[in-house]
Amino acid sequence: MNTKFFEIIKSSNPNKENISFTVIKGEGLGEKAIFSDGECIFFSHNDGFLKSNFDTLAKFLNTGIYPVENSLIYAEKISTEKKIIICGAGHVSMPIIKFAKILGFHVTVIDDREIFIENAVKNGADVTICEPFERALSKIHGGFNSYFVIVTRGHRYDSECLRSILKKTYAYVGMMGSIRRVKIVRENLLNRGFDAGAVLGIHSPIGLAINAETPEEIAISIFAEIIQIKNKNRDFEFSPEILDNILGTGHHEPLSGRKILCTIVSKQGAGPRNVGTKMLCTSEGKIFGTIGGGLMEAQVIKKAEELFNQEKFSPVLLKFNLTAGELSAEGEVCGGVIEIFIESVS
Fold this sequence. Notes:
The protein is elongated. By secondary structure, it is an alpha/beta fold. It is built from 13 helices and 16 strands. 36% of the residues are buried.
C-alpha cells in the first residue's frame, strides 16, 4: 500500500462524511478506496476489484465487514483529528487543556487577555488566539470533530461565542454557568432567532453531574460528557501519531525501514479495543498505538516480525478467540472474538 491513501486520509474534509474501503479477503485483497459524501476520491487500483464494484460500495455507509461477490470488504467511517476549542483562558481552562492533551485532542484556546493566553501556552495549548471572541471564532471553521467548550468570564461573552459557534458544524457545544446565567444566554439566543433545537442542545451547565467543585473536577466532568458524546459515534480517527510517522508530517520524519499496519476490523462480544483501532509496527522494532495489549497484541507483533522476514507478503486476516485456548489461559477475560487485518505500508 503506498502512502497516497494516508495523505488523503490526513487531508480529508472534516465537514464531509468520509469512509474508506479495504478488501480484507478474496479477489482484490489489499485494495483500497476512499469515498467522501458518496463521491469516490481515491482508488488504489484504477482497474481493480473495488473500482468494478463502485455502485455496491456506495451503499455501505457504516463501519463493518460486507460480502461482495467472493470477497470481504472492510468499510470504515473515518474522521479527522479531534479538536477542542476552549473559549476563555481562566483558571478552569488550565486543567481542561491538560486533560485534552492527555486524551489526544488538538487544543485551541481563545481569550482577549494576553496574560491569560500566556498561561494557556504554558499549559500546552497547540494554538492560541488573543483577540475578541467573535473575531477569533471567525477563524475557526468547525467540523464534525470540533468540540467547543465555553468557559468565559461572563454571559455577555458566552452569548458572543454562541452566536458564532451555532452557525458552524460541530460535535459538541458546552457552556459553564449557573442556572440563571444559562437561562439568560438561552433567552438571548432565542430572541435573536436562533433555532430552538440548537439552543436547547447546548450542554449547559456543562459536564456530567458529578458534584464537581475544583477546576480539576470540573475538567473531569466536562471530558466525561465529551467522551460520552464522542463514543456514541462510530467514526474512527486515524491516530495523528501513526499518520505523521508514516508521512513525515508534523514534527516527525518518515519512519525508516518497513512498516506494517494492524487494524481491528471486527469484534464479537467483549474486547479491549473497538473496531477501527490501529497499531503500527516497524521492522526496526518500533510500535505505535495499541490494539489492546496482552497476549493477543504480542501474537500480532510476533506475526508482523515473521512477515518482515519475508521479502514480499500479502495482507493477512487473523482471528483471535479471547474465550478459549491459550489466550483464555493467560487471563484474556474479555470473552470476545476479534479479527485483525495486517498489511504492509510502503
